[in-house]
Amino acid sequence: MAMLVINVLCAGLVVRLVYVLYYNLCASPLRHIPGSWLCHLTRLPLTYHEYAANRRLYLHDLHKRYGPAVRIAPDEVSFATVEAVKQIYSVGGSGYEKTNFYTLFEHFRGAKNMFSTLHKGHHAERRKRVADRFTKTYIMQPNVTAIVEEHVRAFTSRVSQLIAAKNSVDIYVYLHAFALDTITHYLLHPYGTHSINGGEDMRQVEELCYHDTIKARYTELYFPRLHKLYELCARLFRDRKGPQSGYVLNYVRGTCAKSDVDESTILYRYQKAKEAIPPLEIASEIMDQVVAGIDTTGDALCFLMWHLSLPEAAPIQERLRTELHQNASASVDDLPYLDAVVQEGLRVYGPAPISFPRVVPDEGRVLDGYFLPAGTVVSCQPWTLHRFDTATFPDPEAFIPERWLEEEGRLERNRLFFAFGGGGTGCIGKHFATLEMKVLLREVYSAYKTSVAPDMKGSMEISDQIIVSRPKDQICLLSFHALDV
Ligand code: HEM
C-alpha cells in the first residue's frame, strides 16, 4: 500500500513537472520574450544570482545579450526602455502596485510605512501626509537649507580636526554620519543625532551602515518560516551590543513618543495629523525615512568624492572648483557644473541601482509590444537604464559630467535618468538628498583639493545589498589639501 502511495505521488510530481515545463516553454504568454532557456523554465538562475549579490550585473548582462525586454524568470520580465519606465512607474500617477518584496521594509512588525505599502490607494494616502514637506519649493526654503548647511559645517569642521592629526580621513564613515545627523534633524529636531563627533550616536551609524544582510533578507522573502527560525536562534545567541541589536529602532521609537518635538519636523506633522495615527505606525514611517536617507546619500557622496579624487578626475575637480570660486554667493541650484557632477555621480554610482519590482494589474497589459498577463512581475533597474542606450549615454562607463551640459539629447537623458525611481512611488526625499549632496560638495571643493590617500587599500568596487549598493570594503580614505582661499 505504502509503495502504491509513493508511486502515485511520484507520478503526480512528474506530471506536474512536465506540465510546468510545457507551460513555461510553449504556452505561457511570456514565451515570446527573449531570454535564456533556463530563465524561461525556472527561477533558479535568478535566485542564485540574488543570493550571490549579483542580480544587478546578471540582469545587465542579460539585457546586453537579449535586448531591452528580457524574461528573467518564468513570471518575471525586466525592461530597459523609456516606455516601460512610464508604464510601470507612472501610469495613473504611481504605476503598477509594488510586489511582496517591499514587505521586507516593515521595520516594526505589523506597522506599515510608505515604502512597504503595496496597495496603490493606501500608499498614496500615506505619501500625501508629508509630501508637501519634500517638494523642491519647500526644501529650498531658507529654514531647510539652513539645516543642511549646519550639518555640512559640522562635517567640514570634523574633517579639519582630523587632518590636523592624520594624513587621511575615512569619508565613508563621516559621510554616513553627516547623512544620519541631517535627516534626523529634519525629522526629529531637537532629538536628531550628532554622530559626526563620535560618541553614542556613532553606534547608529555602525548599526545602519555596516550590516551585511542580503542573504538573510532573501531568505525572509523566499523562505519566511526558515527565516523565523533563524531569527529565533539569532535572538538567543546574538551579542546584544553588536550590530542589529535594535539600537536605532529603540532610538526612533523612544523619540516618536516625545511630545515636545519642534513644530517644523516631520514627526510633529505625523503627531498632529487630522486623523490620529497609531504611535507604532508613526515610528514605522520615521524609521523608513531614517533608513532611506542614510545609506543612499552617504554612499552616493562617498562614491562621488572618491571618483573626484582619482588622478584622472583632476580636471573635473578643477572645473568644479573654478565654478564654485567664480560664483561664491550663488545658490547651489544655479551652478550648472555642480549639477552635472551630481547627475553623473548618480548615473554611474547611483546607490539604489537594482530593479524596483511591480505587478502587472488585472487583465494584463501590453508593454513594448509584448502581452504580459496579470500578476507578471515587471521592473526596470537604474544600472541598466543608465547604460543600455549608448546613443543617449555614449561611452556609458566613463564619468563625464559634461554630457549633462549638452543641449542635444537632454530630453532622452532626463527620461532615462532613474536614480530616484519614478512616479508616485519614486523617492520622496530626492530634493532633500540633492540639496545635501550639492551643499556638501560646494563646501568641500571650495576649500579643499582631495586625492585618494596613499594608505587607502580598501576596495571601492560596487557591492550590492538587497536594495542599495555600497563600496565593497566600506572604507574610503581620502587626503584633504586645504586651499588658500
Ligand atoms: C542620493 C540619495 C537617494 C537616492 C538615490 C534614493 C533613491 C530612492 C529610490 C530609487 C526610491 C524608489 C525605490 C522603489 O521604487 O523601489 C526611493 C524611495 C524612497 N526614498 Fe529615497 N533615495 C535617496 C535619498 C533619500 C532621502 C534623503 C530620503 C529621506 C526622506 C529618502 C526617502 C525615501 C522614501 C521614504 C522612499 C519611499 C517612497 C514611496 O514609497 O513612496 N530617500 N529612494
From TrEMBL:
This is Cytochrome P450. It comes from the Eukaryota. Heme binds at residue 427. The keyword Cell membrane does not apply. One of its GO terms (molecular function) is iron ion binding. PROSITE patterns: CYTOCHROME_P450. Keywords: Heme, Iron, Metal-binding, Monooxygenase, Oxidoreductase. Its cofactor is heme. Pfam families: p450. Belongs to the cytochrome P450 family. Pathway: Secondary metabolite biosynthesis. It comes from Heliocybe sulcata. InterPro entries: Cyt_P450, Cyt_P450_CS, Cyt_P450_E_grp-IV, Cyt_P450_sf, Cytochrome_P450_monoxygenase.
